[in-house]
Design a protein that fits this description.
By secondary structure, the chain is of the alpha/beta class. It is built from 15 helices and 13 strands. Helix 1 crosses helix 15, helix 8 packs across helix 11 and helix 9 crosses helix 13. The C terminus is likely disordered.
């Protein structure tokens, strides 16, 4: 009997985006997945930057083997930090237990230990991140110089890369990763969960929309995320206020929380209801809130590939985003004037005009249909196929006669 291909995953903590991927991978014929979590963030408490103490309320742990590794102190960490060091990886990541390892970054000490173990033991290493040259451009000259010196060496420690979008592919090439070791994927969103939740809760969606609208003519623009400087929430608030002066149907809805929440609430108290802050919404209800909106807006000053944009598109919510978000491109999540609009970050008047442009129902409905269309090709299934393609490559090199997982052909990276 042929042994299954054993993929070890080293990840900081369970997330709503990747846990469904581990579950799907573990269900593939001839493939088993074991996930090693470095901490239990989101399981015993909420996201600190969101100002929430609520654990995520969707299942992130069933359907695949996993364990929470203790740190060098002998305890399970509850938050993600750079200093996370989980010595048990030394005994877990051996050729006797895994055939390849997936790792998302170099961020923690445990991630760096994983790379060392893979190199010493000859275990193929697969990596993926959402980094872009867009966000690099805002870093100091010294940091960019350091990365230019170190990253070509660091990034080529991985044997295989899965890219997450157009700008991410440019980033990998910039730091010397050969296109031959890159397979196109995406940062996954579980489309099935979104579509099922929305289909089963139409009445609740209508009640939610009515509670947020002035009347049946209201057009709702949504901001979702952490209320922090990098996400630039005040650009959203002020643009909505200006747009409302020209079209009284326009209203903004903010979902999230964080350190800027008190300042946001003070600003909204000075207004006349043009923007409403409903605060934190847990994972099980987020699809309903997106489905109740007309347009999604992301105003970040620096954001590699915010998945809230994909989540909104899964609900048919067309996006407006700043050009400092890494989601836009010729074949990426947002394609300007095809399924959404991209505006220059920091130019509030340009955002105001984009908001006004989507008051046109024909444009909005067209972009909504195309948002679903584009997202359907960039969801969990694309990421699953990318993993299977990489695993097939690893198997072909180690034993050309035996290709166990039923993988699709490799998806080549785009030519930009």
């Amino acid at each position: 009997m042929t042994k299954p291909f054993r993929l070890g995953v080293v990840f900081t903590h369970p997330t709503q985006h990747h846990a469904p991927l581990w579950r799907e991978l573990n269900q593939q014929p001839g493939l088993s997945v074991h996930t090693f979590y470095l901490c239990n963030e989101n399981q015993i408490g909420g996201d600190r930057q969101l100002g929430s103490t609520e654990p995520w309320d969707v299942d992130l742990l069933s359907g695949y083997p996993h364990e929470f590794l203790k740190t060098w102190t002998g305890k399970t960490a509850s938050t993600t930090t750079k200093g996370l060091l989980n010595p048990a990886l030394i005994n877990r990541l051996t050729r006797a237990q895994v055939d390849a390892v997936f790792l998302p970054s170099f961020y923690t000490l445990s991630y760096r230990l994983t790379i060392l173990l893979c190199k010493l033991r000859g275990i193929p290493l697969i990596m993926q991140n959402d980094a872009t040259v867009i966000t690099d451009a805002q870093q100091s000259s010294l940091r960019r110089l350091s990365k230019a010196a170190l990253y070509p060496w660091m990034y080529n420690l991985a044997d295989h890369w899965i890219s997450s979008g157009d700008h991410n592919e440019i980033y990998l090439r910039h730091y010397g990763v050969s296109p031959d070791v890159v397979v196109r994927g995406c940062y996954p969103v579980d489309r099935d969960r979104y579509e099922t939740t929305i289909a089963q809760n139409q009445d609740e969606i209508q009640r939610l929309r009515q509670s947020l609208s002035w009347d049946e003519h209201t057009i709702l623009y949504c901001f979702t995320g952490k209320y922090i400087e990098r996400k630039n929430p005040f650009e959203f608030i002020e643009a909505i206020a200006r747009a409302h002066q020209q079209d009284a149907r326009i209203r903004g809805v903010m979902i999230g929380g964080g350190e800027l929440a008190p300042a946001i609430d003070r600003r909204l108290a000075e207004m006349k209801g043009e923007v409403v802050n409903i605060g934190f919404v847990n994972q099980s209800k987020l699809p309903l809130h997106y489905a109740a909106m007309d347009v999604f807006v992301s105003t970040s000053r620096s954001d590699p590939h915010p998945l809230v944009i994909s989540e909104a598109m899964a609900a048919g919510c067309p996006p407006i985003l700043s050009d400092r978000c890494g989601n836009w491109g010729y074949s990426d999540t947002v394609q300007h004037r095809y399924n959404g609009l991209v505006y220059p970050s920091g130019q509030g008047e340009a955002l105001t005009q984009a908001i006004l442009a989507l008051t046109n129902p024909q444009t909005r409905y067209l972009y909504s249909d195309r948002a679903r269309e584009i997202f359907a090709g960039q969801d969990l299934k694309l990421e699953l196929q990318a993993f299977l393609a990489v695993i097939k490559q690893i198997q072909a090199r180690s034993n050309p006669a035996k290709l166990t997982p039923q993988a699709a052909p490799q998806t080549p990276i785009s030519t930009l």
